[in-house]
Design brief:
- This protein is mostly helical and 51 residues long.
- Helices cover 35% and strands 0% of the residues.
- It has three helices and no strands.
Length: 51
């Protein structure tokens, strides 16, 4: 569980107009998302986006 003071600090740091979250290759694979190149890859599931 996150201590209250750390949670309050995180809230202060995240007060912004925008938030950008960037992830490198294969970050989503651990979450169960398909990769782009393999047989069960992203382009196989969404062929219109591969064009």
């Amino acid at each position: 569980m996150i201590p209250e003071i750390q949670l309050q600090r995180a809230v202060r740091l995240l007060q912004a107009d925008t938030l950008v979250i960037a992830a490198g290759a294969d970050m989503g694979v651990d979450s169960g998302l398909p990769d782009f190149r393999g047989d069960p890859g992203f382009w196989t599931h969404y062929p219109a986006l591969g064009r």
